[in-house]
Amino acid sequence: MSQLKSKKLSLCLTLLLCGAAAQAHSPYLKPNTFNAEEQRKHVTVEASFAEGDLRPDVAMKSEAFHLIGPDGKKLPLAAAAQLKDASYLEVPLAAGNGTYLISSGVRKGRLAKAVLRQGKVQFIERKDDVQAGDTPIEVQSISRADVYVSRGRPSAVDYDTEGVEIYPVSKPYDLYAGEPVTVRVRENRKPLAGETLTLITDGQHYAKQKQAEVDFKTNAAGEVSFTPKDAGLYLLQVRVRRASPDNPALWLSTTATLTLEVLPQP
Question: Mind listing the domains of the chain with CATH numbers?
Fold first, then answer.
């Protein structure tokens, strides 16, 4: 990796740790098709970090790329191409018809210096940023990006997964503009209430009337519902930040995303 790209990736990871969704690069997976015909044996998936629109900026690397097929079996994936701005996966749809979960898996990023100030995490760059009463901590960046792709006739998508994720309660292959979409933020399949979910609308670079990012709070069931106005691609993002259960001086900042395709009304 070039020095410039290394610095760029470091900046992305810092933003993921420090910034709000509107200010940070987001990890995403974008397939060339979300609903493949039965005769199609693979899809190509772009894996990258982007700010706003899903246009690749910094390549995503992961040793945990995988898919879970409609048969429930997990298959490791390796990037078919690793470019500076994006990685590309050729994902086999060998389990036959049904819906597949494609995931970056859990990716550990950098450790950042921070303090707890009045119960909130504050990142620091210099020693003189520390104030009286601050508790020094370190924050570990963790990220995960998911997308669902169907081949032929779709199938149920409640797979056995671990970690923080955005799970589509609404069928991800049957979403239409003007109709409500429900998702659930969960960790190890248990709902997470009170977390902030951000909705990012793709294609704003060319839109005359731009749609701002929208934040929602998950309810007691960990769920959020929203109604997309237009057809297109949407990225959902959540950031869960808390102290490590084994080490109160280490905090975990987990960012999870889900890419959805919303279709026009037939």
Answer: 3-262 (2.60.40.10)
